[in-house]
């Protein structure tokens, strides 16, 4: 078992007061056997009332709004969490054509705005190389992860939250969010239900890509077994170094913070995440994203804002 202290700050700043902001947060760790929340404190500018509910995908979600004019919005969470040692073990040798689909799993076979593939030749060629009907679902999924790990370069700053799978494939590089979207496209093309996972990746003495930051990976479904986590950024099965926050079809379904505000303001976004280990070691990540809007003559505008890209 390991205990981690995670400090996550999302800060929006505006060049003039905005009249109203409405936000949705998914910063509540999932209630699963491999992780136990010991303490969670949440602080939001002006201390608004947060309406907490469970969304379609089973994620604990909070909604709140700030009605008074404000020039900044800070959402800060402090989490103390214990992870329980687990191993993947022997996954069932389930042939790929035996997958049972329910209504929710069927929706996890559909492409989303991050996975509307124009570069069909890439999918066709890759599937031809990796697909083998005699292999298990787990073997094929890991082959897809290994392909991404070996053929895509981990580079920060080359993509954004709006980058499509076509664009990621074109330059063969990106961060965890991008690699998760490519893996989803491959698995769904092979009719394997799969979903995007957002969370954190905790320190590892051997080093892992994306440490000390918000992170993303994929879960795929094995009949009569359940959901299995796979991290293509590090090409590892998800065990007790990953802290799970939310799941969905893609990043847009489970981004930690997103919302809308009224006003012709320019905004900037910065995200700070630190992950503290039991021995006192701390991994930190600061991600600054400029989200500027030009001035408009209208008094009120609805502008979307998202948390920073997951690394």
Describe the structure concisely.
The chain has helices at 103-107, 120-130, 137-151, 165-171, 176-189, 251-254, and strands at 2-18, 20-25, 35-44, 51-54, 60-66, 70-83, 153-154, 173-174, 194-201, 214-222, 226-231, 236-237, 242-248, 257-262, 267-276, 282-291, 302-306. It is an alpha+beta fold. The radius of gyration is 20 Å and the shape is globular.
Describe this structure in words.
- There is one protein chain.
- This protein has two domains: 135 residues, Immunoglobulin-like, CATH 2.60.40.2250; 158 residues, C8orf32 fold (Roll), CATH 3.10.620.30.
- The protein has a five-stranded antiparallel β-sheet with strand order 3-6-1-15-16, with no helix packed on it. Strands 4-5-2-14-17 form a five-stranded antiparallel β-sheet, with no helix packed on it. Strands 12-11-10-9-13 form a five-stranded antiparallel β-sheet.
- The radius of gyration is 20 Å and the shape is globular.
- Helix 3 packs across helix 5.
- Helices cover 18% and strands 40% of the residues.
- It contains six helices and 17 strands.
- The protein is an alpha+beta fold.
Cα-atom Rg, whole angstroms? 20 Å
Q: Strand sequence of the main sheet, in spatial order?
A: 3-6-1-15-16
CATH class assignment of the largest domain: Alpha Beta
Q: Please state the average pLDDT score.
A: 83
CATH topology of the largest domain: C8orf32 fold
Helices and strands, in order, run as EEEEEEHHHEHEHEEEEEHEEEE
Q: Low-confidence parts, pLDDT < 50 over ≥5 residues?
A: 290-303
Helicity range: 10-25%
Beta-sheet strand percentage? 35-45%
Structural class of the helices, strands and pairings?
alpha+beta
What is the annotated CATH architecture of the largest domain?
Roll
The DSSP helix count reads 6
Q: Strand count, sense and closure of the main sheet? A: 5 strands, antiparallel
Number of E-state strands: 17
* N-C termini distance: 25 Å
Question: Overall 3D geometry?
Answer: globular
């Amino acid at each position: 078992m390991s205990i981690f202290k995670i400090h996550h700050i999302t800060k929006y700043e505006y060049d003039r007061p905005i009249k109203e902001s409405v936000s949705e947060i998914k910063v509540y760790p999932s209630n699963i056997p491999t992780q136990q929340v010991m303490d969670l404190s949440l602080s939001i500018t002006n201390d608004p009332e947060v309406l907490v509910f469970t969304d379609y995908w089973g994620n604990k979600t909070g909604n709140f709004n700030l009605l008074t004019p404000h020039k900044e919005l800070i959402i800060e969470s402090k989490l103390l969490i214990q992870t329980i040692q687990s191993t993947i073990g022997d996954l069932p040798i389930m042939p790929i054509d035996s997958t049972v689909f329910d209504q929710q799993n069927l929706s996890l076979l559909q492409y989303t705005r991050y996975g509307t593939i124009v570069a069909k030749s890439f999918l066709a060629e890759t599937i031809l190389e990796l697909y083998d009907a005699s292999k298990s679902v787990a073997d094929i999924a890991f082959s897809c992860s290994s392909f991404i790990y070996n053929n895509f370069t981990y580079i920060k700053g080359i993509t954004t939250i709006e980058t499509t799978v076509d664009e990621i494939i074109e330059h063969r590089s990106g961060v965890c969010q991008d690699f998760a979207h490519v893996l989803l496209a491959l698995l769904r093309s092979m009719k394997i239900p799969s979903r995007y996972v957002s969370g954190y990746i905790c320190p590892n003495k051997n080093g892992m890509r994306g440490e000390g930051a918000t992170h993303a990976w994929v879960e795929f479904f094995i009949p009569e077994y359940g959901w299995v986590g796979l991290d293509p950024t590090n090409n590892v099965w998800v065990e007790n170094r990953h802290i799970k926050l939310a799941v969905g079809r893609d990043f847009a379904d489970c981004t930690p913070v997103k919302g809308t505000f009224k006003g012709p303001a320019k905004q900037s976004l910065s995200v700070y995440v630190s992950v503290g280990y039991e021995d006192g070691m701390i991994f930190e990540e600061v991600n600054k994203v400029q989200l500027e809007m030009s001035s408009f003559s209208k008094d009120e505008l609805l502008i979307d804002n998202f948390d920073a890209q997951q690394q």
